Amino acid sequence: MKQSNIIFFEQAFPSANMVLIKDQLPILIDTGFGSDVKRTERLIQEAGVSPTELQLIVNTHYHSDHVGGNFHFQNNYDVKVAAHKWEAGLINAGDFEACCAEWLDQPVEPYRVDRMLSDNDKIDTGNRVLEVFHTPGHTLGHI
């Protein structure tokens, strides 16, 4: 039986779930809390992907349970980060609410968004093309 290249990392509350797409150009959707980053890194490695191979982190929105590990992967492995343009602008401008918000008592180390996403944008993983759907509600830039 063929194994899926889409790996779901289910996390216990209050941390967020993550998805690793283990294609030719591996991407990670969300990074969890910063305090869980070593566990996140271990999960990725156990799935057969080195953090140095990650091509992109895609954030669904900017709450700390989804972006807390961004700084670690960006700073240590030069992984690019993508987020919706509305949140990316706030994060890159250093907006305190967006960059350092302590959702669920978890601070976020400052990071930068390298790729600003909009509705219907495409993300190529080498084996498939993902389409971005802007779904505001939980946050204005939720995708």
Automatic annotation (TrEMBL):
Transmembrane segments: none
Gene3D superfamilies linked to this entry: Ribonuclease Z/Hydroxyacylglutathione hydrolase-like
Matches recorded under Pfam families: Lactamase_B (PF00753)
Domain Metallo-beta-lactamase: 16-143
Record protein name field: MBL fold metallo-hydrolase
